């Protein structure tokens, strides 16, 4: 996120974990302010002092879209795979509503044998991406990376692939 901000982009993120947001600002050595989101009890927005990074600490499903606007680019690493499969369509509908004409959406998902591990993180097959986004988006798999490590063996799997998709407007 800082990489994009350093290149002049405005960055908006949504994260459920306040600790994760604080760690981001600390690790990137960025000063920030925080303020409540009045429409959502207990929710906050953390803003970099430079003003071009705003991270909302709340459930994405609760965040009024008017608060965050529309985007040319979206980078989803870890959101779709964390969302319960029964909520995926709702999530996809929100993402699609946030995209400007000519958008680019990078989507990172995980592939493994779902009979061996039920999630989270959840398995997201190619067909699911087409089902969720295919009516509006072209999808192109840019990368398949084997990320299996010893620490994933306790899931009962022996293969874990991270896939990166580029979704663009049809």
From TrEMBL:
The keyword Lyase does not apply. Pfam families: TPMT. It catalyses: S-adenosyl-L-methionine + a thiopurine = S-adenosyl-L-homocysteine + a thiopurine S-methylether. It is found in: Cytoplasm. Its EC number is 2.1.1.67. Coiled coil: none annotated. Keywords: Cytoplasm, Methyltransferase, S-adenosyl-L-methionine, Transferase. GO terms for biological process: methylation. Its main location: cytoplasm. Gene3D superfamilies: Vaccinia Virus protein VP39. GO terms for cellular component: cytoplasm. One of its GO terms (molecular function) is thiopurine S-methyltransferase activity. Belongs to the class I-like SAM-binding methyltransferase superfamily. TPMT family. Monomer. This is Thiopurine S-methyltransferase. It comes from Rhinolophus ferrumequinum (Greater horseshoe bat). The lineage of its organism: Eukaryota, Metazoa, Chordata, Craniata, Vertebrata.
